[in-house]
Structures are given as C-alpha cells and as structure tokens.
Amino acid sequence: MDHDVYDLYDVQGASGVYNGMAAAELPVAWQKSRHSNSQGSCVEFARLPGGEVAVRNSRFPDGPALVYTRAEIEAMLLGVKDGEFDHLVG
After folding, report:
1. Which of 16, 28, 35, 79 could form a disulfide with 46 if both were Cys (CB 3.0 to 4.6 A apart)?
2. How far is CA 55 from CA 4, 9, 13, 72, in A?
3. Contact between residue 44 and residue 30 where contact means Cβ atoms under 8 Å apart
4. Which of 23, 80, 15 shows the shortest CA–CA distance to 49?
5. What is the 8-class DSSP label of residue 29?
6. Angstrom distance (rounded) from CA 62 to CA 89
7. Chain centroid to CA 88: how far?
8. Within a 10 A sphere around the Cβ of 74, how many other Cβ atoms?
9. How far apart are alpha carbons 49 and 46 in whole angstroms?
10. Contact (CB, 8 A) for 23 and 38
C-alpha cells in the first residue's frame, strides 16, 4: 500500500480516535455476535462517543482498531442483510 495513502487514514481526529490505534486505548464496551465461536475467532464492535463504530479482532484485543462512520457501518450491515457477502463464507 502506498504509504502516503495510508497516512490519510491514520490522521487523528478531534476526538483523539484514529484508524489503527490500539483497541485497548478505547474506553468502550466491546460487543461480539452471539453466533461467535468458542475459540474466540470473532469480530467485535464498539460504538464510540462521536457516533463512529470501532472494530477489532477478538483474538488480538490489544491490536489495532478500525474506525468507521455510522454511514459506512450502515451500508455494510445492509449489504450483509441482503446477502451480498454470502460468497465469502460459502
């Protein structure tokens, strides 16, 4: 990936939250699906105070968090509900 492009996504916002920051640094309650398996292979979500949504890998809770806008999460959820990503697990 072009380093200059990556830097655009790593700019710290006014809230101090940015893509790639350590998930453990976010003072939030993480939530995973009740469909997650017992081995901890889960994606966890947390709503941030500014309305964004953070995502982390439950196997690496201190690893990086990805931060998305509400509109981005809404588009993803609508796509999941419509079956647009079913081919990824089939």
Report:
1. 28
2. 23, 15, 17, 12
3. yes
4. 15
5. -
6. 26
7. 18
8. 12
9. 10
10. no
Give the other-Cβ count within 10 Å of 65's Cβ.
Answer: 25
- The DSSP line for 46-66 is EE-TTS-EEEEETTSTTSB-E
Strands, sheet with 53-57, edge to edge from the N-terminal-most edge strand? 31-32, 43-47, 53-57, 66-68
**Is residue 87 helix, strand or coil?**
helix
pTM: 0.77
φ, ψ for residue 14, nearest 5 deg: -60, -30
CA–CA separation, 48 and 17 (whole Å): 9
Q: Given this model, what pLDDT does residue 14 score?
A: 55
Walk along the chain (90 residues) in steps of 10 and give the mean pLDDT of each run: 40 72 93 82 91 93 94 96 93
Contacts by 32-39, CB closer than 8 A, 24 or more apart: 32/58
